[in-house]
Design a protein that fits this description.
The structure is a homodimer.
Chain A lengths: L1 E3 L2 H13 L4 E6 L5 H13 L2 E6 L19 H10 L4 E3 L3 H4 L6 E5 L7 H4 L3 H16 L3 E5 L3 H13 L5 E5 L19 H6 L1 H16 L4 H13 L5 E8 L13 E10 L2 E10 L2
Parallel strand pairs in A: 1-4, 2-3, 2-6, 3-4, 6-7
Antiparallel strand pairs in A: 8-9, 9-10
Chain lengths: 282, 282
């Protein structure tokens, strides 16, 4: 496994791999890897000849009062996990290699980013789409692998790739959960023991939504209400949203659809968690 | 020479060429080709193994009161000129192949676009950078060729390519002029005989600027003033700007620099023309 921090070197390595007709896959990450990230690299390994993981804590996708400076940096373990998952190359740029002082270009998905995470974190998705555009240009992949955990993010990336004709296949991989249901997240390590216990209400609310869709005649609006009630009844959990929306557009649904996505976001102390679940309606 | 209108087909043709290690060059145009465009294709021919010209009148770079609907469409002659200049492939998408109804992604250079053409045409450069990003993703070039005539445009494209790590070399080619000095432009055909005569004051003002820089001690501000006076003294020519700025940043210059760019824009009836000239200071 090669580890490289210089964009032009990474570009050359991938170019050489492509000359041998390798199918190239990229797994963009911010490091602090967990089993969810590993599942992305493993999936890329099964579908691609040359697998690039990227590790870059991207400052532009954090808001001014968010956790950029304290975001976990665990490079040594991250590289070990990439190696065990059989990545070919890990791209580990530092901020000065990704952003020059005079950079002034932004890639913006204008509509899909206005709600949910985009409403709570107004500059977040501009930071995500711009850095992912850069990572796509540096690593020139055929396929890119993202986790369903950041559901809106993978939709936004899909929109960007389609709109800008990138010709990259976006593969969304299932959420990996702890045994008790908590979705894996680099931010889970922020939780106190008490918050960790309380956090279970997020996945429980999604299980409730799944059950209501599959086993009752409840409408999306009724399901939302029951999910919200469950979360609001939990001490120390501040609800940002619990909604049931179109999984393609994140727009509200009329009546009962065939399927939908339930998305939740909540804060536990200083830690903000998100989770989601595809719902099938009976 | 192949002519293709479908993005995915063009992508496959270029991919095949790249497998043979071809250096790929692209010349993006809006058609209505003239000797300036031909010089770009010829330059690409000398520097690249596989030359793609694109012909697409991009609606998103025209303002609501601009000349999109009457912009000259001369496809048959355009293809003949591409063939004579020895292009390998011409990409001729229609609007529905470039923009789906649900497209919502924009590539935005935020600072360099705020003045000059960007001030007069507020949405113009967002349209340019977004469509060029798409054309780059479809044609996957090593080099892209633009005319110096659109001086701010080539700077904006350079900025975008650097900021988004595209790894594409931008080659800016000299302005091609009519025998009497008028810079070649697809819009020159709009000019009446009288306007055609009056239009010469643009290139004359640039020649004046060049001479003042080279042969006198005039400052950029003094040169601007003399250029403006010359244009303002011409009946039927409405001056948008005549300025002498840094050729790298388009920012104002203090004192006398080693070199600079003089840029002019003016309207003759309904037709808007631009021109520019690099100045060397004695």
């Amino acid at each position: 496994m090669q580890v490289e921090s210089t964009p032009s070197v990474v570009r050359e390595i991938v170019r050489t791999a492509r000359r041998d007709r390798a199918v190239v896959g990229v797994v963009p990450t911010m490091g602090a890897l967990h089993a969810g990230h590993v599942s992305l690299i493993e999936r890329a390994r099964t579908e691609c000849d040359f697998v690039v993981a990227t590790i870059f804590v991207n400052p532009t996708q954090f808001g001014p009062n968010e956790d950029f400076s304290k975001y976990p940096r665990t490079m040594e373990q991250d590289l070990e996990m990439c190696k065990n998952a059989d990545a070919d190359l890990v791209f580990t740029p530092d901020t000065s290699q990704m952003y020059t002082a005079d950079a002034e270009t932004v890639v913006k998905v204008t509509q899909l980013t206005s709600r949910l995470e985009g409403a709570v974190r107004p500059t977040h998705f501009d930071g995500v789409t711009t850095v992912v555009a850069k990572l796509f240009n540096i690593t020139d992949p055929d396929k890119a692998f993202f986790g369903q955990k950041d559901f809106q993010q993978q939709l936004v990336i899909r929109r960007m790739v389609a709109d800008l004709d990138w010709g990259i296949e976006i593969v969304t991989c299932p959420i990996v959960r702890e045994a008790d249901g908590l979705a894996m997240s680099s931010r889970n390590r922020y939780l106190s023991a008490e918050e960790r216990q309380r956090s279970l209400v997020l996945s429980q609310s999604l299980q409730l939504g799944k059950k209501l869709a599959l086993e009752t005649a409840a409408t999306p609006a009724e399901i939302e209400r029951q999910m919200q009630d469950l979360i609001l009844a939990t001490d120390g959990v501040v609800l940002d949203y619990a909604v049931v929306l179109s999984a393609d557009s994140l727009l509200p649904l009329q009546n009962r659809p065939d399927s939908a996505v339930a998305l939740v976001a909540a804060r536990l102390g200083a830690t903000r968690l998100i989770d989601n679940q595809i719902l099938q309606f009976r």
